[in-house]
Amino acid sequence: MKMGVISVISLAAILTVVSAAPGGWSSADSNDADLLDLLNEVYLDNSSHSGDEVAVTAIEQQVVSGMNYRFTLQLSQPPSDPLNCQVVIYTQAWTGTKRVSEDGCMF
Q1: Which of 12, 31, 59, 79 sits 20 to 30 Å CA-CA off 86?
Q2: Is residue 92 part of a domain?
Q3: How far apart are CA 9 and CA 67, in angstroms?
Q4: Mind listing the pLDDT tens digit for each residue in 8-17?
């Protein structure tokens, strides 16, 4: 019985490590105030898109030599239909780096 419990715990630990997918993208809270502030500071304040026309539909994060945050945005530009696009912001806390590394919302 003791061996069975250890095996189940070991299997659970292995599955946890595998599902974390180091270097892969994982979901983040699209209502996280800090991430929305990051989007405003680094991207929206310097883009042609106003906050009124942008809705955040998803945020993903990826551990690299810092953090990548991929924002999926829906741009409302009447009279056209809304457009979906993605922006990736790279941050590195220990150097103070915050920059747009990919901008799929430039049309």
Answers
A1: 79
A2: yes
A3: 30
A4: 344 344 333 4
